[in-house]
Amino acid sequence: MKKSADSDNSSSRVSDDSTHMDSSGLGGNGSPKYHQANPESLSEEAKQKERIFRKKLNQDAREVISHSIHKKVKLIVHRPDYDQENQQEYVRLSKGLMPIVQEIARKTLPYLEHEVSSEFAKNRYYGSKFQADSVAYRDYRYFAKKRPPTESPSLVVGLRVDESASMSAYGRLEAAKRAVIAVYEYCQLCQIPILIYGDTADVSKLEQMSIFAYADFDKADTNDRFRFMRMHARSNNRDGMALRIMAERLAVSPQKTKLLISISDGQPKAMDDYTGSYAVKDIQQTIQEYERKGITFLAAAIGQDKDVISEIYGKERFLDITNLHEFPARLVRIIARHL
User: Fold this and answer.
1) In 10 A of CB 313, how many CB atoms?
2) Distances 89 to 16, 84, 186, 229, 231 between C-alpha atoms, Å
3) 245 to 14, 194, 258, 316: CA distances (angstroms)
4) 272 preceded by cis ω (within 30°)?
5) What phi, psi does 106 have (nearest 5°)?
6) Cross-strand pairs, 78
7) Model pLDDT for residues 87-123, shown as the tens digit of each residue
8) Are 203 and 163 in contact (CB under 8 A)?
9) Which of 171, 133, 143 has its CA nearest to residue 325?
10) 20-59: pLDDT as tens digits
11) Other beta carbons within 10 Å of 99
12) 3-state SS track over the chain
């Protein structure tokens, strides 16, 4: 057995030949740039902070599920390491994506600048200025109000990746990695807080649910982009539990718009009886509960169970990803629309 992720002796490490990318991570032509870094530069204080953060993630996740049907499920939240091979894979997968991501960001940023500089914050339930053009949306956000100097439009994004065994088929895992890279780099360019977690179930009797915290807005790290390459097709999937943990993180964030996207290739299935109508009901109840808290859910289906996933999440929340090659750009454009 490997030592658990919240153990005092486990640590986040890099290889002796590790590299790191700067804050932008991109060269002038859109390709990733990196330079040699000293792996010993991570101080003992930094390592201790990482252990404390990992422990807090475990405590918070267990608290979230303590009042749900998953309360007896043994859970561990991991903070994956990365090595030189992961860095090289990241560079390989990201090369063709960066020009697309940068172009979408280039078109988005002027709107963000306009909104930030705007004297009024729009789409409010109440305010001092009536917006006639908003009536067509019928969401009761018909007003605008004076924006405080410190307030700016805000979006937070959560990206959940199903790491079940079936993700190994038909290039789905690589497509998911490319989508994660595209979304992450877009959010970095637009300064959007992002949460990227993967999950699997039934690794062992002592670890019935595994969460992999690849990127977290509470501890942003430019090297998080390399952690994504640790995604693997592993075991089963307990979707409702993963969604609940991530949705709670987003629900307590200060941003106004909270978007949670689930990338999955199949319907939920985990031991002992988390399957069928029982699992479907759990997912639907989780969605209903957190939509009341302001979370917008989207399900990106990339496998053979597209019809089932559509029924579970509802057609209004469903994305049919038929072309895996177009998946990354499509996902980024969907996020851009929510800005």
Assistant:
1) 24
2) 17, 9, 19, 7, 12
3) 27, 15, 14, 22
4) yes
5) -60, -40
6) 212
7) 999 999 999 999 999 999 999 888 776 555 445 556 6
8) no
9) 171
10) 344 445 555 555 555 444 444 567 888 899 899 999 999 9
11) 13
12) CCCCCCCCCCCCCCCCCCEECCCCCECCCCCECCEECCHHHCCHHHHHHHHHHHHHHHHHHHHHHCCCCCCCCCEEEECCCCCHHHHHHHHHHHCCCHHHHHHHHHHHHHHHHHHHHCCEEEEECCCCEECHHHHHHCCCCCEEEECCCCCCCCEEEEEEEECEHHHHHHHHHHHHHHHHHHHHHHHHHCCCCEEEEEEEEEEECCEEEEEEEEECHHHCCCCHHHHHHHCCCCEEECHHHHHHHHHHHHHCCCCCEEEEEEEECCCCEECCCECHHHHHHHHHHHHHHHHCCCEEEEEEECCCCHHHHHHHHCHHHEEECCCCCCHHHHHHHHHHHHC
Residues in a beta bridge with 36: 19
CB contact at 8 A, 93 and 177: yes
**Using CA atoms, how far apart are residues 180 and 160, in angstroms rounded to an integer?**
9
Residue written as tokens 């990106």?
300
Q: How far is residue 152's CA from residue 142's CA, in Å, rounded to a whole number? A: 19
pLDDT digits (tens, 9 = 90+) for 115-164: 554 455 566 555 666 666 665 555 556 566 655 544 445 899 999 999 99
Q: What is the pTM of this model?
A: 0.79
Residues sharing a CB contact under 8 Å with residue 146, sequence separation 6 or more, in sequence order: 119, 120, 121, 128
